[in-house]
Design a protein that fits this description.
InterPro entries: Beta-barrel_OMP (IPR027385), OMP/PagP_B-barrel (IPR011250). By secondary structure, the protein is mainly beta. It has a single domain, classed as Beta Barrel (Porin). 7% of the residues lie in helices and 73% in strands. It is elongated, with a radius of gyration of 22 Å.
Length: 247
């Protein structure tokens, strides 16, 4: 899902860039503050990366669990808009990204001691249930393309800090009859570096109000369980709509 979403985002970006050739100047020249609020759907992937084998300093890693969930997100922001005489302007903003809690279930391998003869690490099959709520403070920069009086397409990049609240339960099937049992459950908070790439367009009602339609890919960092040797990577592809008010 994420790979297909990134391809779609790249196509949208190319369309935005190619549309500037026949532009009309509709901008207000100067530096203007603005506030915005967007909301929409986030299509999240939680990818568990498990350690298959360790030999010296070499570690083989493979994907042993992947789950997808759709979340609701809100994205209020405050920023500055810069417009000169050219068809290309810019914006910088601070955004607060917030989602509801989503439940992921991933198949994992759980360390289960070592082989008595070889000393190799042994793993038992199991799964982990994660209930994750994410929020982030993002610092975004955008390039605006003044293609017409009505439409202002844009592309953007962001960097920030994400905080993940996780209610997890770890289960193992390492019993003779194959039934599961709970190894551990608890709550964790993880802080990680986050990054984003976006493309969209503003539909201008007048020089102060615009409808903002966009697509954004978020890399939200890793979430590590304190009882296992694997990490989980959280990504999200968002489709949002909202209002931007310029002063």
């Amino acid at each position: 899902m994420i790979k297909k979403s990134l391809i779609g985002l790249a196509v949208l970006t190319a369309t935005v860039l190619s549309s500037t050739a026949s532009a009309e100047d509709s901008k207000v020249v100067g530096v203007r503050p603005y506030v915005s609020f967007k909301a929409g759907a986030g299509f999240q992937d939680l990818d568990a990366r498990c350690h298959d084998e360790t030999s010296g300093t070499t570690k083989t890693v493979y994907d042993c669990g992947l789950d997808h969930k759709t979340v609701f997100n809100m994205r209020p922001a405050i920023g500055l808009q810069f417009a000169g005489e050219s068809y290309v302007g810019g914006r910088v903003e601070v955004e607060w990204y917030n989602t509801n809690r989503a439940k992921f279930i991933n198949d994992v391998l759980i360390p289960a001691g070592t082989d008595e003869e070889t000393g190799e690490q042994l793993y038992a099959p199991g799964y982990e249930r994660n209930k994750i709520q994410s929020q982030a403070v993002m610092f975004n920069t955008y390039a605006d393309f003044y293609t017409s009086e009505l439409f202002t397409p844009y592309v953007g990049l962001g960097l920030g800090w994400a905080k993940h609240s996780n209610k997890y339960s770890l289960y193992s099937y390492a019993t003779e009859d194959g039934s599961k049992y709970t190894l551990r459950s608890g709550n964790t908070t993880t802080n990680r570096l986050a990054a984003s790439a976006s493309a969209g367009t503003a539909i201008n009602f007048n020089e102060h109000f615009a409808l903002d339609l966009g697509a954004t890919y978020y890399y939200l960092g890793t979430i590590k369980n304190p009882t296992t040797e694997y990490k989980q990577v959280l990504n999200s592809f968002n489709l949002d709509a909202g209002l931007r008010v310029s002063f």
